[in-house]
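Q: I have 116 residues here and want to know how they pack in 3D. Can you give me a structure?
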Amino acid sequence: MDQWGPAWDAAHGRPGLWPSERGPRVRLHRLDSRFASYRDALGLDPALEFHSLRRSYITHLIEEGYDPLFVQQQVGHDHASTTAFYTSVSSDFRTRSLRRVLDATIKAALRPGRTS
């Protein structure tokens, strides 16, 4: 890994995320704090946190039909189960998915010449 990767930072006591225009790395605490300020000013649910943006991104990709393996690789998860944990699809999406599978099953069952 190059010198700017997370492993290098952890090994050198630099827990920040990204370099800023001022040089030091931005810490997660600062991002969480700023996000909370905006969230509160907008009157959004206090349960929302900066990491909610990542969960939303993953969920939107899945709901838009992106291949789950692509989504897993896009967000850097080693295991599909981790990506699934981050995914919280809407009830509309679940209904559409179930309807699609049921329609295909019924169509196949009613196909002429099907023996069983």
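Q: Anything worth noting?
A: The radius of gyration is 21 Å. The mean pLDDT is 82.
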